[in-house]
Amino acid sequence: MKKRNRKILSFILLSCMTLVSMPVGLSAKSTNNYNKEISVVQGTEVDIQKGLVFNMTFKAGELQRGATFEIQAKDFDLNRSNYNGIKVQGATVIYQSGNKLKVVVDKTSKETTISIPVYGTVLKGNPRLIVEEDSVATSGEYIIGVKGQVDRYGLTISTGQVPNISDTANGQLADIIIEENAAGTLVSGTKVRLKLPSATNLKFRLPDTDAKGYATSVKIEGIRGLNGENIRVKAEYIDNNSNELLLTLVGIQPSSARGGIQIKGLECQVDNKNSQVAYGPVQATIRLDDADTTTLTVANVSGEGINLKVKQPIKLTAGKGSQTVEVTMSENVAGSLSRRNDVYFEVKGAKIVPGSLKMIGSAAVTIKEEIGVKGKEVTGFTVDTRKIDPTRINTVTFSFDVQGEAGTEGPIELIADSMKLEEKVTIGQVGSALAVTMNTINLKPALKDQVGGSITIKEMSSGIFERGSQLVVSIGRGARGISFTDAKVEVKDMKLGNMKVENGSIILDIDRGSDEGATIRLTDLEMYVDALVEEGTYDIVLSGSAVSDNEKDRIVLKDKIKVAKQASSNNQQESNGLAKGTASFKIGERNYIVNDKVKEMDAAPYLSSSSRVMVPVKYVSDAFGITEDKMHFDKEDGKSVVIIEAGQRTLKLIDGSNLAEVNNVVKPMDDKVTILNGRTYVPVGEMARMLDIDVEWSNETKTAIFTNK
Questions:
Q1: DSSP string, 264-325
Q2: Which InterPro entries does the UniProt record give (predicted)?
Q3: How far is CA 504 from CA 368, 484, 554, in A?
C-alpha cells in the first residue's frame, strides 16, 4: 500500500473513533398536567392546603441522571420558603427566582413521574407554568386555576328577578346572589352591607327574628359547593340608619368546590308616608370584603295594575272547530288584585265555549262563567281574587276554549275590567272560512217568479264543506213575504246531493268535499214577493253545518235585496226604473248632450276594428239616472267585472267577453266589452237593449241618440 493511501486510511479510522466516543444528548418527551383544578382569584395563596401538584411523566430510559430543565412562572409569584431544599421522587427542585424553578433529575432507569408542588401567589392576568421549548421535557404552558383570566375579587354579586313594588306599601326586594370565584372565600362571619339612596324615600324593613336574633323572614340558600348548608343570618341597621342594612352570615363551612349563597326575603317600606315615592328602578349599593362594591337594581316602584300574557296565541277558522288558550294574569305590584275583589273578562272577535273555563294551579282564586240572558251563550267570566295574598305579587293562570263565529275574521282580544283597571291582550286570530259575493237583486212587490242575482260561495281552505253537511240560503229576519222559489246551482271541485226549496229557503246537501278550494255558485235566483212587503232593503242569510259547527251561527249579506214599487207613467221614471230623457253621443267627441244640456266626459265614443260604435258605459248610464253607487267593480278569474244596477235590471259586463248578463241571463253581443284608460265600452246597440231603452244612429253626424220615453 502506498504511503499516501495509508495516511488517508489512518485519518478515516481516527475520525470514526472520534464520532463513537462523543457523548449523545437525549431529547426526552414528557406528559405534563396538574393533579386537579383549583379556583383562584387575584391574591389567592396556593399552598399545601390547596394541594396543587404539576406532574411530569417520562418513559423508562428517556432521562439521564443529572439532566436539568427549567419551569418558569407567569403572573404567578413562586414562594421561596416553600421550595427551600425541596426534594421529590426522582428529582430535586431548586428555587431560582420568583418566576423560575430548576429541576435536576436523580434517577433515569424506570418510568418516572416527577411531581412538583406548586406554591405561590396568584397575580393579575393569566397565571401559568411554562416549560421552555429547549427543555429536555415537552414544552408548553399550563394554566393555574379553572379559568385562564383571573378575577380581581373572590366574590361576585348579582340579583335575581327584579320585582315591582307599590309606592304606598311594603315590598319585597330582588334576591341577592353572592358567588365565589375562588372556593372558600365565603366563611362564617362574612358581612354584607346594603344601602338604599336616601332620595328614594324608602328604608329597609328589619326581618322577623327568633329568640336568638336570627332572621326568620329572610332565608339563605346555598349554591353549588355550599348547597345544603344550614346558613343563618342576623340583620341590623348600620349606625341606626334605616336605609343601611348589615347582614352577618353564620354557619358557612368552607368548601373545596366553588359555591355561593342566595339571600331571599329582604323587604323595604316607605320611610316618610307624607312624601311620595317616585316611580322607577330602586338601586342598592352592596359591599363585601373581597368583592367589588356593586350597585344593582333591586326593585321597580310601580302603580297598581295587572299584566296579561298569552302562553301561545291561537289561530281559528271562522265557524269551524275550537282551540284552548292559556292566559296568565299577574299583578304589577302586591295588592293590585286583592283590593278589587273580582275582575271581569270578555272576549272580542270570538266566542267562549261553554263549560271550558279552568283554573290552573291556584286554589285561592275562583272563576265563574257569565251566561247571557237569552240562552246558554257565555258572554264573559269573572275571576274572584279576594282570597289571594295581598302582601306578595300574585299570578293567576286560567284557560278556556274559543270558537270563531261564522263570517268573521280578524284579531281575538281578551279584555279585563275592574275598578279603575282595564287591560287587554290579543289571544289569537280568526281567519275566514268562506268568501261570499253577491250582487243586489231588485224586486217588485206582488210579483212571483222574479229572477235575478247570483251568490258565489268559495272555500278559503280545503275541507270547509264536509260530507253530510248542509248549506241553507234564506231571507233575513224582518223580510216576511219574500221567499225563494227556485235557483240554478253550479259547483267546482266538490259534489252536491239534493238541492231543495223548503219554507222559502234553498237547502243544499254536501255529498263530498274537496282537497282543494271548492266553490258553490247559485244563479237565476227565483223569488216571490208578497204584495204587503214594504219598500226597502233586506238581507240574505247563510246558515247550516256547512257554514258553522254552531247551529246558531249565521253569515249575513246585508241589503242584498231591494224592493221598490213600480213607477207610475207620470213619474220621472219609466217602467224600466230609469230616468226619462234623451242623450246623444258623437264619435270622437268628449261632450255629450242630456236633455238639451251639454255635459263633458273624460272618454269619447269610438269605432272598433269591427266597425262597431263603442260607447262609454258610465256616461250612458249616468244620463238615465244610474248613479255611481249603482256601479260596482270586481274581479273574476283575473278579469275585470262591472256590475250595474240599472233600474229593474242588473247588468254584468266582463272585460274581453262578448257575453253580457242581464238579470243573470246571458246575452251575446256584436263586439267584446273593452276597458280603455279605466273606462268600460260596449257596442251602442247592445247598451240600449241591456238598458231597455231606444237608440237611433245618424251615419251623417256619427251620433248615437238614446231615448227613454
A1: E--EEEES-TTSPPPSEEEEEEEE-TTB--EEEEEEEEE-S-EEEEESS-EEEETTB--EEE
A2: Cu_amine_oxidase-like_N, Mao_N_sf
A3: 42, 5, 17
Phi and psi based region of residue 410 (left: phi greater than 0; alpha: psi -120 to 50; beta: remaining): left
What does each C-alpha distance from 197 to 215, 271, 463, 566 come to in angstroms? 24, 12, 65, 86
Strands in 659-662's sheet, in edge-to-edge order, are 631-636, 639-646, 649-654, 659-662, 665-668
Residue 444 pLDDT > 70, yes or no? yes
Three cell numbers written together for 537: 232593503
**Each residue's pLDDT tens digit, 140-194:** 899 988 766 677 788 999 999 998 887 776 788 999 999 988 888 899 999 999 9
Question: Quick one: three-class SS letters along 446-476?
Answer: CEEEEEEEEEEEEECCCCCCCCCCEEEEEEC
Any residues with CB less than 8 A from the CB of 349 and at least 6 apart, and which? Answer: 404, 408, 410, 411, 412, 413, 430
Distance CA 582, CA 586 (A): 14
CA distance 699 to 17: 135
d(Cα 477, Cα 475) in Å, to the nearest integer?
7
Phi-psi region of 654 (alpha: psi -120 to 50; beta: other; left: phi over 0): beta
pLDDT in tens, 69-85: 899 999 999 999 898 77
And the C-alpha cell for 666? 246571458
Which residues neighbour 71 within 8 Å (Cβ) at sequence distance 6 or greater? 54, 100, 101, 103, 116, 129, 130, 131
Residues 6+ apart with CB under 8 A from 16: none
What pTM did the predictor assign?
0.55
- Give the torsion sign (CA, 647, 617, 525, 507): negative
Single-letter code of the amino acid located at 73 = A
Residue 673's φ and ψ, nearest 5 degrees, are -65, 135
User: 366 falls in which pLDDT band (50, 70, 90)?
Assistant: confident
Q: Residue length, the chain? A: 709
Instruction: Give the count of alpha carbons within 13 A of 317, CB side only.
Output: 16
Answer whether residue 4 shows pLDDT above 90. Answer: no
Range list of β-strands (E), 45-181 = 45-46, 53-58, 68-74, 76-78, 87-88, 91-97, 100-105, 112-117, 120-122, 128-131, 140-143, 155-159, 164-166, 171-172, 176-180
* Dihedral pair phi/psi, residue 643, rounded to 5°: -115, 125
Chain center to CA of 417:
24
Q: Which domains does the chain have, with CATH numbers?
A: 30-143 (2.60.40), 155-302 (2.60.40), 306-431 (2.60.40.10), 434-563 (2.60.40.740), 581-708 (3.30.457.10)
Q: How many other β-carbons are positioned within 10 Å of the β-carbon of residue 108?
A: 18
Q: Which residues contact 141 (CB under 8 A, 6 or more apart)?
A: 74, 128, 129, 130, 131
Measured between alpha carbons, how far is residue 110 from residues 54, 89, 138, 556 in Å?
Answer: 19, 12, 18, 99
